[in-house]
Each structure stands twice: as structure tokens, then as C-alpha cells.
Amino acid sequence: QHSLFSAFSKFGPLYSVRAHRNAAVAGPGYYAIIKFYSARDASRAQRACNGQRLFQKSPLKVCVCTKQKGFQQQVLALNSNKCQELANHYLGFNGWSSRIITLQNISGFDGENEELGKTLQKRSVKYLCAVEVTLPNHGVHTRGVALGEADIENGEDPLEFVTATRRVQKLAVGKALSSAFQKILLVVLENGKVAVEYNSTREELTDSLTEEELKGLVQV
């Protein structure tokens, strides 16, 4: 997988690289599934690498897969780590920044259940987060709001509570960051330059609020 990554990442950032053994009926060997963020990069890689000996004795057969079973009508959002990876590649580490506007605890008891004559309370940790992403060189600012939550089996255990709280906070921040990035369109031109547009189709009601209004809304 390392050799594949080194060979194909020259054509653009990779989403994932997976290598698998051939099925028994196909004979010894391996096949790999390499996913690019950009279809343009994938096409360039296919044209350049097909039939070549990149790091092995026999030539590679490289094809572009365009069929995705079950996802034709579904667009999946990138997680926050993938969003940051793309931003760093196309904009540079200093080409964007993010900050947390608010991260607030909105936890409470989910309810009470009667079991064996005892009242059991199942505790849930919930955090609501609002994040702003700024691209200073392009004058673009976007926001993302998201909820992170998790159940705690033993609400009386302080270690479990602290661990769950940290995990939920990280989850809320990551989801909010991903939401903010979904409103940014990166247009990669043929000369390698990158243009940035604001994706207004992803706008939310919270985008029109001031920071004070947003914090007040979260508190309510």
C-alpha cells in the first residue's frame, strides 16, 4: 500500500488506498482500489500508469471505476480529517483557519425506566458546537453547527463520565467543522490554481445569526 500511495499520490491527493489478494480462481497476485478526491486526478493517473511497471516487474492494468452501487443518489459528506487534508493540500497550511464559536453542554437525563422494582436513570452526554472556518486569501467565511452525544452506562463512574465528555466534545467539534467545510467549493483549474466559491445551497438558518445570537440560541 505504501508503494501504491507513493506512485499515485503524485497525481493528486488520495482519499484512500486499499490492496487485496486476488480471489483463488484468479490466480496469485493482488488488486488495489485507489480513491482520489478529484475525478480529473484519477483520469490523469489512469492514463499515465496503465501498462507501466511502476514498482513491480509486470505492467499494471489501471482502470477508472465510475459505478458506485447504492450511492447513486446519495452524497456523503467528508469527515473533518479529510476536509482538513484537502484544505491543506489546495490552500496551504496558512491558507485557512478555524475557531470554535461556542461549545456548550446540553446534557440531561433521557428518562427513567422501572426494572426489578428499581428506578434506573440512563445518562446521556450532549454537546452542541458552532465552528467558523475562514479562508482569508479568498474572503470566505463559513459556519457549521453540530451535535455530539453518547450514552453513559454507569453515570456514577467519574472516569467514564470524563472520558465520554471528551469524546463527545471532540465529536461535536469534528462534525461542526465538517459542516462548515461543506459550504466551500474548491475549483481546481487546469493551470493548477485554485478558486474558491461559497456553496449557498448548503446554507442553514444559523448562518444569518450573529455570534451573540448563536450563543444565546445554543443556551436556550
Automatic annotation (TrEMBL):
Keyword Ribosomal protein on entry: no
Q: Which UniProt keywords apply?
A: Cytoplasm, DNA-binding, Nucleus, RNA-binding
Reading the lineage from the top rank, the first entry is: Eukaryota
What Pfam families does the record point to?
A: DSRM_RDM1, RRM_1
A Gene Ontology molecular function term of the record:
DNA binding
Q: Give the GO cellular component terms, alphabetically.
A: cytoplasm; nucleolus
Q: Where in the cell is it found?
A: Cytoplasm; Nucleus, Nucleolus
Q: How does it assemble?
A: Homodimer.
Q: What is this protein called?
A: RAD52 motif-containing protein 1
User: What organism does this protein naturally occur in?
Assistant: Pelecanoides urinatrix
